Inverse folding.
């Protein structure tokens, strides 16, 4: 994990500085009378005058000490920006994963158990549609549909779940559906494929021959082993959800991490871009580490080995 995040931090640092334009150009964009000395002074004040190794060390040494620095434009501490934005993105991702797993896993099981039935064909067609529909298009479509048909749009001002649960649910209802559809479709298709494979294994046939109830065979013997590759897919889908959340947050006006990151990219706010991207990478790495831990719970043979 440490080696991965170190490599990611270097890539982030270099990619940010390869973006066309910079914060100095934005600050002096409308000032035709600005001199090179003024631009150099501004770069020095913002800490952008040193070499790349010096700038990288300044950033990483602060991160390792828990100091993410300040936004170059607003001068607001980045830790405060993340403290406000992170709960929004976390809630959106958790709701998206919850919808995808609660709906996708049962649909996949039903599709596998009732292979080549009407429900199986309906699930497979729905999965193909879910994979094909971009989340930003679905988010826009949901907004148009609810506003035109029901004359209702979600609240524009973010409200915490602890302050007003009902208003919070109204605000996250459509964004969570929009980002969950792709993961739901992937989960459903993966569960179906793995269940079909597991149901044909010897130990499942043996359990059936012994007279074990069908529901018990499906839940205890088949589904638990079928979920191992599904957990892998869901773990990787966290990164997809985070990426999709950035666009969906813009569409619904949710000031989450993705919303802040996109605005920072437009404004070339280097510290915000670097820390937000590193935070997303850290979440992705930690989630995949937790996926490895879950393997041992699903299959005790992995823990023993």
């Amino acid at each position: 994990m440490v080696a991965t995040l170190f490599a990611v931090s270097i890539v982030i640092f270099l990619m940010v500085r390869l973006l066309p334009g910079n914060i100095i150009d934005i600050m002096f964009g409308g000032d035709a009378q600005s001199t090179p000395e003024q631009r150099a002074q501004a770069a020095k004040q913002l800490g952008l005058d040193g070499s790349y190794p010096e700038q990288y060390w300044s950033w990483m040494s602060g991160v390792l000490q828990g100091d993410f620095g300040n936004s170059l434009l607003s001068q607001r501490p980045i830790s405060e920006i993340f403290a406000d934005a992170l709960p929004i993105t976390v809630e959106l991702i958790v709701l998206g994963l919850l919808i995808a797993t609660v709906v996708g896993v049962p649909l996949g099981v039903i599709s596998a158990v009732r292979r080549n039935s009407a429900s199986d064909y309906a699930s497979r067609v729905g999965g193909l549609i879910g994979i094909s529909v971009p989340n930003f298009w679905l988010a826009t479509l949901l907004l148009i549909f609810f506003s035109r048909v029901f004359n209702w749009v979600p609240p524009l001002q973010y409200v915490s779940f602890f302050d007003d649960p009902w208003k919070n649910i109204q605000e996250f209802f459509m964004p969570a559906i929009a980002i969950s559809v792709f993961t739901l479709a992937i989960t459903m298709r993966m569960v179906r494929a793995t269940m079909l494979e597991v149901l044909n294994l010897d130990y499942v046939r043996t359990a059936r021959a012994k007279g074990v109830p069908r529901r018990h065979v499906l839940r205890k013997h088949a589904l638990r082993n079928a979920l191992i590759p599904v957990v892998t897919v869901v773990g990787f889908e966290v990164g997809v959800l985070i990426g999709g959340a950035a666009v969906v947050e813009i569409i619904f006006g949710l000031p989450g991490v993705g919303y802040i990151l996109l605005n920072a990219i437009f404004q070339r706010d280097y510290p915000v871009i670097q820390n937000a991207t590193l935070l997303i990478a850290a979440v992705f790495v930690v989630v995949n580490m937790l996926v490895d831990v879950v393997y041992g719970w699903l299959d005790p043979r992995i823990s023993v080995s």
User: Anything to note?
Assistant: Residues 214-252 form the longest helix (39 residues).
